[in-house]
Amino acid sequence: MHATTIYGERDIRFEEVPDPVLSSGRDAVVRVVAACVCGSDLWSYRGIQRVAHPGGRMGHEFVGVVEQVGAEVARIRVGDFVVAPFIICDMTCINCRNGFSSSCLHSAWWGGPDADGVLIDGGQGEFVRVPEADGTLFATPSYPADDLVPSLLTLSDVFGTGHHAAVSAGVGPGSTVAVVGDGAVGLSGVLAAKRLGASRIALFSRHSDRQALGREFGATEVIESRGDEGIRAAKDLFDGIGPDAVLECVGTAESMAQAVGTARPGGQVGYVGAPAGGAELPIRRLFRTNVGVRGGAAPVRNYIEELFADVWERRIDPGRVFDLELPLSRVAEGYAAMDERRAIKALLRP
Questions:
Q1: What's the CA gap between 45 and 42, in Å, rounded?
Q2: Rounded mean pLDDT of 160-165?
Q3: Which of 106, 219, 319, 346 could form a disulfide with 151 if both were Cys (CB 3.0 to 4.6 A apart)?
Q4: Pair (335, 200) in one structural domain
């Protein structure tokens, strides 16, 4: 089989690797139908984060069809179409039951070692070995129509992550919201906030194509300025004090400062941007304004059941964040397009 590997800064390859095999009774092997590039993949691609294992597998978002299951797998069956969340989890430990599968006591990351120390495949490949298959995988009722596949793929990470930002920020009916970040997560945050009943949503964005999709997802205003100017613009939109909730969907020091500065006194920041270094909380400002900050790695596996029905019944279409589709063999082009902001999010099909 072939899979995506990384050797260093801007060195993405699609090369032949060993076929996956079941290594425990809890595994499954999935044939990938669609995968994608995540904004967090770009941190190592850009050299911001060191590539710990040159030649290691890439990708943590995929959907596909189950080809094999281990002897202990009871819920997932061969032939199921499944969504794989970006963190492997058993959904039985106390953290999973408490709603935080991203902190599963038996969690593992795609491309890293599993609980038995065996390296796991990355999602940007033709086949993937899935540990803890009964907990990790979500099976759809039937094989989906092809045009539903992109939206189902967003449930593996990006839409669930945007939803987590909105939930963490306390978004509900009538909420006023600002979204920092116009990438796929930020746009998903707009859609999630609208779905949860927000009355007004301002999107920080300087890109006309992203602004247009943001408005279609539910943004009522767009703020093109940044820094102190952007904060003043946001406060002017919301009674001179700022919105109830701010979704931080980037992961830099600048984006966190933007989010904290934008929230009204007593407001809430929901942050989900994967930290790229430098972001620190201004404790004195938070103390003075009573702004709360909550969020982190999204427990997307806990959210899939809730979000799935709206996707399956076509009430929402989060898959529209994919504005570039490529064969998996051209995955390096997908990384470059996202790095250069020529694409919001790249969809890959074997």
A1: 5
A2: 98
A3: 319
A4: no
CA dist 106 to 28, 89, 114, 117, Å?
Answer: 16, 6, 8, 12
Task: Please write the tens of the pLDDT for every residue from 24-45.
Answer: 899 999 999 999 999 999 999 9
Confidence band of 278 (pLDDT split at 50, 70, 90): low
Query: Are β-strands 81-84 and 138-139 bridged in parallel, bridged antiparallel, or unpaired?
Result: antiparallel
Measured CA to CA, the distance from residue 87 to residue 105 in angstroms comes to 12
pLDDT bucket at 279, cuts 50 / 70 / 90: low
Report the interhelical angle of 227-237 vs 253-262 (nearest 10°). Answer: 30
The answer to whether 104 and 87 have CB atoms below 8 angstroms apart is yes
| Alpha-carbon gap, residue 102 to 108, rounded angstroms | 9
- For the stretch 100-115, pLDDT in tens is 999 999 999 999 887 7
Looking at the fold, whether 91 and 6 belong to one and the same domain comes out as: yes
User: pTM score, two decimals?
Assistant: 0.96
DSSP conformation class of 12: E
For residues 319 and 344, state if they share a domain.
Answer: yes
Q: What angle do CA 179, 340, 295 make, to 5 degrees?
A: 30
Q: Name 241's Cβ contacts closer than 8 Å, sequence gap at least 6.
A: 235, 264, 265
Same domain for 168 and 274?
yes
Q: Report the number of distinct structural domains present in the chain.
A: 2
In this structure, are residues 274 and 157 in contact, taking their beta carbons and an 8 Å threshold? no
Residue-range definition of the domain harbouring residue 314: 2-157+299-349
- Tokens 């102190």 locate to 228
126 and 182 together in one domain? no
- Alpha-carbon distances, residue 20 vs 2, 5, 81, 105, 208 (angstroms): 11, 15, 18, 24, 43
* End-of-domain residue from the set 277, 295, 313: 295
